[in-house]
Amino acid sequence: MEMAAWEALIRSTAFHAFIRANEPWLWPLCEILHYLGLSVLLGTVGLFDLRVLGMARAIPLRAIHRLVPWGIGGYLLNLMTGVVFFVGHPDQYFYNNAFRLKVLFMAVAGLNVVAFYGTSAFRELATLEPEAEAPVSAKIIAGTSLGMWVAVLICGRLLTFFRPPFFH
Hints:
The protein is elongated, with a radius of gyration of 19 Å. The protein has helices spanning about 5-10, 15-20, 25-50, 60-65, 70-90, 90-95, 95-120, 120-125, 135-160. The relative contact order is 0.14. The protein has one domain. The two termini are about 15 Å apart. Helix 2 packs across helix 3 and helix 3 (about 25-50) packs antiparallel against helix 5 (about 70-90). It is about 75% helix and about 0% strand.
């Protein structure tokens, strides 16, 4: 099987060489950081989504929303470690349907963030009293967010089970 030009380019970089030369310690470290980042992301954004969906109404939305920057930090950590994984083994990921779905779900989650902050949904939530119910539009966005991040988690776990045939 001939290597694609994009893959040859990635494999010719110093970053790829560094990852492969240090894989015995770098890969497990990045795995740990990746899981921690996802835990922070789901633990903060997921908690906010669940609150918008109606759980734990005694907790003010504004208080939970203050945790969202931590979730963004977790996402950025995952993005950085994900780049290490991809550059280290580009063919293992690019040709993997679980990876492709994971990227799709991440893109939908990103568009969902734009919908949340770019429409009136966030402004409406910011004015709610602590125990008030969120508007339907915000619930749809929160449900989509929660669903997409859980789907990203599932697809990430399935990556090793759906490796391209040349890895089995």
